[in-house]
Amino acid sequence: MSANEKPAWVGLFPDQDFEFRFGARPGDAIAFFADTAENTTLMEGRRTALEKSPAQCLFEEPSAAQAVVECSDWAGLDGGGCRELALHWEPDF
User: Fold this and answer.
1) Among 78, 75, 86, residue whose Cα is nearest residue 42
2) Are 60 and 72 in contact (CB under 8 A)?
3) What total of structural domains would you count in the chain?
4) Does residue 29 lie within any of the structural domains?
5) CA-to-CA distance for 28 and 36, rounded, in angstroms?
6) What DSSP state is assigned to residue 4?
């Protein structure tokens, strides 16, 4: 290694205080919720899992009720909860 080269591990330990970073950035909601090429397979698997073991696959906290209502409205669903959203949208909800 020459004097100008740095070992690979130098990038792992920056010379600064620790800082937690959350890498959220704006995205395209329509693209995120759009069906993928694997939609049929994924949704069949989800339906099967929800039928066989709903208690292990669904969790709906009462404090999130308003968010679920808003998401259901945005999805164009008439009521329902997390189960209906899970059967409607491909991304995990």
Assistant:
1) 86
2) no
3) 1
4) no
5) 15
6) T
27 SS3 class: coil
Q: What is the pLDDT of residue 70?
A: 94
Assess if residue 75 is contained within a domain: yes
In a domain, 6, yes or no: no
Calculate the average pLDDT of the chain: 88
Do the beta carbons of residue 36 and residue 90 sit within 8 Å?
yes
Domain interval for residue 70: 62-93
**Taking the CA of residue 62 as centre, how many other CA atoms within 13 Å lie in the half-sphere pointing to its CB?**
0
Q: Is residue 26 part of a domain?
A: no
Extract the tokens encoding 49: 């899992």
| End-to-end CA gap in the chain | 50
What pLDDT shows up at residue 1?
A: 65
DSSP 61: -
The runs of H, that is alpha helices, within the chain are 29-33, 39-52, 54-57, 65-75, 82-88
* DSSP structural state of residue 38: T
